[in-house]
Write the structure tokens for this entry.
Amino acid sequence: MSRWLAMFLVTTALTGCSLYRADLAQGNSITPESLRQLKPNLTKHQVQQIMGTPALTPYFELDQWNYNYASIDGLHRDQLLKYKTITLYFKNNKLESYTSNEWHAENLPKHK
């Protein structure tokens, strides 16, 4: 009986060591190239072609698009979730400005 228990414990321990943990990513993947393409007066359609469909469009704020991205390194699951967001603001269906602490659209002014 103790022999089976020892084999079970060793097998369980070895199985736990060999687990592969994939990186997890969710949301809009934003590239520096797509941010460089953003400039004032782009239409919503043009922005969508560059950035993709926004993850969140507030129902009552149709002139605000939110792109969110969350990721975690599979090898370091004990670390905090990395979360990035960029909000694009439109006026008269034209891109006007943005806010973000992580991504920087160099050709587009910051929102006040």
Remarks:
- The chain has a mean pLDDT of 83.
